[in-house]
Design goal:
- Helix 5 packs across helix 11.
- The chain is about 30% helix and about 25% strand.
- The strands form three sheets. Strands 3, 5, 6, 7, 8, 15 and 16 form a seven-stranded mixed beta sheet that branches. The protein has a six-stranded parallel beta sheet with strand order 11-10-9-12-13-14, sandwiched between helices.
- The longest helix has 14 residues.
- Helix 6 links the parallel strand 9 and strand 10.
- By secondary structure, the chain is α/β, with parallel strands linked by helices.
- The chain binds zinc ion (ZN) (2 copies).
């Protein structure tokens, strides 16, 4: 499904020529979707922003950056860590491996390619070999691609949850260094919010709280079923008061904002955190924040970490944890939709299709 512009996806056939040296051909078994897909479909993503700043034209491209597939062919030479027939999760970030960002372990900021971001699903067709996205039957994987082998018994659509869980491990545990006995508040109860809560609980947090809106009732209910101690509808209840009550007036050790679009959680994160606590901002807003309580943040000496994406270490841990079947996160996956209906699938995830009530949506390739 080639994207030519905002909301313009066209089914297109390509010849699948044999892999070049070191390259892998992947049959896409499933592709996860997230808020970034919603922005990408609308044409308001980072690649479009880079184009405005003088980068390569963002379109046409094949979107889809949460790819799970099976290796069906490999070029001569190259890597020895995977074989034809293996099912793998594809790290969306493509590291050049040589720039200062890659060498510092920040491949999401890689500056070693002529295109940015160096991320599957955002590299245009004009960059050879063109098939860089998961809204497709096949992808061509660059020799430098980071891959995570998946257990064969894990269904492909379920395996796409590795991406949300990786974010949960990064944002809910690794970045804020959540440890045993701590109190954690997660703002937002989308798939990454719920995954952050599950990860914090797995890391030993003694109190895990998730917030959402009235329309998120099903997500909040699932969060409770997955072991969250309090799931707060902030339209019905004051989250700051409730968290104060739950923490003996201290506030939370860790506050993680995973919500998209709304800026109120940024200000709330300061009100919710305890003195000397840690705040993680992971939800993109597409606008700036009014009324930020800077003095409160200083008085609390809160450490604030804005995070982009997920480290390879968190992704690897997510694949391993998902493989154990112990997370319960597969219950988040409310929809599996053929990739040829990617536009509708993104709308379902975005809550734009009445009555669908999506939490996590995976594209599949049932048409083949
Ligand atoms: Zn994503
Ligand atoms: Zn690099």
């Amino acid at each position: 499904m080639v994207q030519h512009g905002p909301r313009e996806l066209i089914e297109t056939e390509f010849d699948l020529t044999p892999p070049r040296p070191g390259e892998l051909i992947l049959r896409v078994d499933a592709c996860g979707l997230c808020g970034t897909d919603v922005d990408a479909l609308a044409g308001r993503d980072i690649a479009v922003q880079r184009e405005r700043e003088g980068g390569l034209p963002a379109f046409p491209r094949i979107a889809g950056h949460e790819i799970v597939g099976t290796i069906v062919a490999r070029g001569e030479g190259g890597r020895s860590d995977v074989a034809v027939g293996d099912r793998v999760a594809v790290d969306p970030w493509l590291p050049c491996g040589r720039c200062r960002q890659c060498l510092a372990g920040r491949s999401m900021h890689c500056e070693g390619w002529p295109f940015r971001p160096a991320c599957y699903g955002f590299i245009p067709l004009s960059v050879e070999p063109g098939l860089w996205g998961g809204y497709a039957s096949h992808c061509r994987l660059h020799p430098q691609t980071v891959l995570y082998p998946l257990p064969a018994e894990l269904p492909a659509a379920t395996a796409t949850l590795w991406n949300a869980l990786g974010a949960g491990i990064q944002w809910g545990v690794m970045t804020p260094q959540t440890s045993i006995g701590e109190t954690v508040v997660i703002l937002g109860c989308g798939q990454r919010g719920i995954a952050s809560a599950v990860a914090a609980r797995a890391a030993g947090a003694r109190l895990v709280v998730v917030t959402g809106l009235a329309r998120d009732a099903a997500k909040l209910a699932l969060a409770r079923e997955l072991g969250v101690d309090a799931a707060i509808d902030i339209e019905a209840e004051d989250a700051v008061e409730r968290v104060a009550a739950l923490t003996g007036g201290d506030g939370a050790d860790v506050v993680v904002d995973t919500s998209a679009g709304s800026t109120a959680p940024i200000n709330d994160s300061v009100a919710l955190v305890r003195e000397g606590g840690r705040i993680v901002w992971a939800g993109l807003k597409s606008k700036s924040v009014d009324g930020f309580p800077i003095d409160d943040a200083i008085h609390k000496s809160a450490r604030i970490d804005p995070v982009l994406g997920v480290s390879a270490e968190a992704y690897r841990l997510a694949v391993d944890l998902l493989g154990t079947g112990q997370t319960g996160l597969e219950r988040m996956q409310t929809h599996r939709i053929d990739f040829r209906e990617a536009e509708r699938a993104v709308d379902v995830l975005a809550g734009k299709v009445p009555g669908e009530g999506a939490i996590s949506v995976a594209l599949t390739n049932v048409g083949d």
